[in-house]
Every structure is written in structure tokens, then in C-alpha cells.
Amino acid sequence: MSDVISYVIAGMLLLQAAWRAPAAMRGRARERSLWGTLTAMSLAWLMRTDFGKWLVDHVGVFDLATLLKHLLTVAALGLLFRYVTAIDAAEVRTGSVASRRIRITAAAHRYATIVGGAVSIAMTVVFLFWLHRTKVPTDPQFLERHAGEPAVALYMGLLYAFSGTVIGLCAYQWGSKANAARGAALRAGLWLMTTGMIIGVLYAAIRIIYSVLAGVHPVSSAHAAVQECVTDILLYGCFFLWGIGVVVPATQAARNRYEVLVKTVKLQPLWRDLAVANLDLVAVPPSRLLPGSRLAAPVNTARDVLCGGMSPAFRLGRYITEIQDAILELRRRAPEGLYTRALQMAERDGGDPEAQEARAQALWIRAALAAADRPAGQPVAFPSGRGESLAAEGAWLLSVAAAYTEVTPYAVVALLAEEGQPA
Question: What does the pLDDT read at residue 186?
Fold first, then answer.
């Protein structure tokens, strides 16, 4: 059962590491630190399993899997703390924040790598030269195998003193930021991680006390079994809460990204038609793969909204801006009075005023595109933007885009015919 839980936690951490790998490759030290934490922690949990031990045992150094597990833990915690304090450390360097909490954590951020390296070297020295390691294990647990050896108290004390300190500082950081966090998902994630770290501190404290006792005198099998059961439960709880807490804010980001992508897909037909008619106004021309094929529309839509090496939010903003620019250019070629007639036609169809206006603008765009071969002149009348921000303008254009897809060729012909213009 212990192996199963270890595999689950290792898998959960590896999945997150794989998910965050692209951000780590193109991101800052903060993103790379989190990716390193997840990767090192997943490998440390793998070293707890029979499979991980079997892999390392082939080297021929008994208990090497345990040493690697502990060294990976130290490295992971050091990287985690650098991730946690990266923002505050940057603020201290710029002199913009002077709170005692941030000064303390920024100093710890500065020396975490040095202290972690020193702890790792000291543990390795104790492991290689002071612990009485044998080729035949007498107990399945590392601590019980070395019970009665003072060196094991030093070895485990170094590990858990460093771990407990870093975990406690992380809990302090996350707990301090939780109430002020923006968004329910981020706040919930911070509290989950804080709770997990508090459990981790309790785990480290129990392990330090037990390590000292075991190093002084062998502990009975009953007491060892109880200690192992309690600390394993605490360790599993710590990692599950922390792992879930790391994911929760990311789910909100994924949801936001999905919503932006949906808006971009809805705007794409309107943007595409306007872009084709005004190619000199768009940064990236619309995709034109598979002309004449049934797959052309979905393939080109997917290529337009997914490719190009830009974020969904940036692409959505570009679509909105380019639609506005293209409409401005269409105003120079559209027939005079076209919008008044489009609004009258929309009003005849009924509906609330906003729906009528969105339908009228969609009709005007369709008809203006059909008459776009006219000579350019002075801009004709057309409503200006609906919002003071890009988000407000985007929300309105989504209504226009929805109405745009429902405009029929007959409506365009009828609208242009009212002024005697050829369709």
C-alpha cells in the first residue's frame, strides 16, 4: 500500500512537472524553480518505492536509494523556497517593500542554496564514513537499521532540521499571502499549501525527536511501527494538500485561458472576412489551407486561433484591434446611409434594442464587404466603439459576431438594393 501511495504522489508531481516544463523553459527563475521542485520531489518519492530501490541497488552501494531520496528532498525544498520568495526578494532589491516578513524571507531566499548545499555535503559525509552500512538489511526501514548509532541522529537531524525550517518558512509565506490573494482559486490554493506545510513541520519535528531517541538507544519494534505509521500519514497528508494547492490556482488560469480561446473562436469568422478584405491591416493573414474542401473551415479556424506562437489573450486583443481597424477602412468604401438602412431592417425583425443594434452592425459589415470594390471616399456614418476598454469592446464585438453568422446573402442583397447598389 505504501508503494501505491508513493507512485500516486510521484505521478502527480511528474504530471505537474511535465505540464509546467514549457513555462520553465521560456520563463524566469521562479518558473524554473517550481519545475525543479516538482521534478526533484517526484524522483525522491520514486526512491521510496521497491522499484526505485531496485534501480539504484544495481550500483552496489547499499542504502544509496535512501541517500538519493534525502538529497533530492533537500534540493527540492531549497528550490521550493526560492520559488516562494522570488517575488518578495525582487521587491526588496528594488527597495519598494520594507516589511520585516519580506526582509527575513528575502535573506533566507539568498542563502537557501548555500545552506542546502552544505546540508547535502554534511549528510553525504555522515552517510559514507560514519554510518555502519551492511550488505544484508536487517530491517526494512533506514532509521531502524541504524538504531543505536549516534551518527544516524546527526544524519536525520540535518535532514529534518533543514526540511522543517524551509517548510515552516513556506507556510509562513503562503499563510501571510492567503487572505490578501486575489480570486477564490488562488486563496484556496494558498490555504491548502499552508495547511500541508504545517503538517510537514509537525512531521519533521516528530522525525527529529524519534531520530535522536533511535540514535541513542534501539527503539522497540512496536514503537517503531507506530512512529512509522503516524509519520507516513502526516507525510502523505502534507504532499497531497500541497500538490492539490499547487494545482488549484492553475485550474483557474486554465479556465481563463479556455474562456479566452472560446471568445477567439467566436470572433474568428468576423475577423477572417474583414482580414481577407484588408490584408494590409492584419499582422498575420488568415489561414487558407485546403481550398474547396469540407475540412477547410475547421482546419483554417484551428490554425488561426491556435498557431502563431502567441498567447490566447494576445491573439484575442489582436483580433479586436484588427476588426476595429478593418471597419474603419470599410467606412471609406461603404455606401452613404447604409447603417441607417441596416438599422431599419434590423428593427423590423424585432428584439431588444441591443440585439437590434448588433444585428444592424452585422448587416452593415456584410453589405460593406460586398460593396468594398467602390472607390474610397470620406468615412460614412457608423457607431463608434461600445466600450472604453478592450474587454468591453470585445464583449460587444462578440454580439456582433454572433449576429454576423446569421446574416443571409438575401438580406445583404435586399439592403444594398434599397439604395440601388449592385450586390
Answer: 87
